[in-house]
């Protein structure tokens, strides 16, 4: 089975796939979301992963391949050692030189985050192009795929969590509030006011950027959202109606399969 790891700045999302075979599509057997383990050693990571598997009644020995999308370079060496020591496989990291099937047409392709490439691979496989992927994580990224399946570029904005943290840390009299859809648009308490500003301000940011991108790409452009806040925000966005929480994991699976095909041909 394939273990897919999406290592983000705040959270790491893990998926276990039964790969596709002749006449049978790939299926996700299990998935987990954990806090990104900045301080843990490879041995501690090994214990963590074996515990996660055990809680689902799974044996870690069923893993025959690992695909990793990481935006936290200091963790990469530990993850490699984890895969080689505990799963006995050499992991496939999404990095320059890996076959993705997605031409990157930016000024400096090597600086594009692995997660952005993986998301676009999965989005184009599902929807074709032109497509925009909105990933709402620590940062909010907008990634544009052309009609031909090329990564054209995009935009990066602060995530909603970062925006909220900045507000609370710089305004002494404002307290932290739950980020959720407010019940009204004109607040009558400080908590209401903050929630309205965060929620609808964030929606305005997303719709504003999407509106301009769609105007340039054409009205047939599809938009798909992913990330921890996508489902919450999509309910009031004009342009974001499709959400896939597992978009990155499915992109990892697709890239892993394409690289296995290349090795088999060789």
Q: What name is given to the CATH topology of the largest domain? A: Nucleotidyltransferase, domain 5
The first-level CATH class name of the largest domain:
Alpha Beta
Rg calc? 20 Å
Average residue-wise pLDDT:
90
Order of helices and strands: EEEHEHEHEEEHHEHEH
Reading side by side through the largest sheet, how are the strands ordered? 3-2-1-4-5
Sheet having the most strands: 5 strands, mixed
Strand content: 15-25%
Query: How much helical structure, as a percent, in the residues?
Result: 25-40%
Determine the number of helices (DSSP H or I, runs of at least 4 residues).
Answer: 7
Q: Ends: how far apart?
A: 22 Å
Overall CATH architecture of the largest domain: 2-Layer Sandwich
What is the tally of beta strands?
Answer: 10
The total domain count is 2
Low-confidence stretches: none
Shape: globular
Assigned CATH superfamily of the largest domain: ATPase, nucleotide binding domain
Overall SS class: alpha/beta
């Amino acid at each position: 089975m394939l273990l897919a790891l999406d290592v983000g700045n705040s959270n790491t999302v893990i998926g276990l796939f039964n790969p596709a075979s002749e006449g049978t599509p790939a299926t996700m057997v299990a998935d987990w979301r954990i806090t990104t383990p900045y301080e843990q050693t490879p041995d501690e990571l090994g214990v963590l992963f074996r515990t996660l598997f055990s809680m689902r009644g799974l044996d870690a020995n069923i893993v025959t391949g690992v695909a990793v999308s990481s935006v936290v370079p200091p963790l990469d060496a530990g993850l490699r050692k984890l895969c080689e020591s505990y799963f006995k496989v050499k992991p496939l990291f999404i990095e320059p030189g890996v076959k993705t099937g997605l031409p990157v047409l930016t000024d400096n392709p090597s600086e594009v985050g692995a997660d952005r490439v993986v998301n676009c691979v999965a989005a184009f496989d599902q929807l074709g192009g032109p497509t925009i992927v909105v990933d709402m994580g620590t940062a909010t990224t907008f990634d544009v795929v052309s009609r031909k399946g090329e990564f054209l570029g995009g935009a990066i904005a602060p995530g909603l969590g970062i925006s909220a943290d900045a507000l609370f840390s710089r305004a002494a009299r404002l307290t932290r509030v739950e980020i959720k859809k407010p019940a009204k648009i004109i607040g009558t308490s400080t908590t209401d006011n903050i929630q309205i500003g965060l929620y609808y301000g964030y929606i305005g940011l997303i719709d504003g950027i999407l509106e301009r991108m769609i105007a340039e790409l054409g009205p047939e452009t599809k938009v798909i959202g992913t990330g921890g806040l996508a489902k919450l925000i999509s309910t009031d966005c004009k342009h974001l109606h499709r959400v896939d929480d597992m978009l990155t994991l499915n992109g990892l699976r697709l890239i892993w399969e394409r690289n296995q095909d290349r090795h088999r041909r060789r």
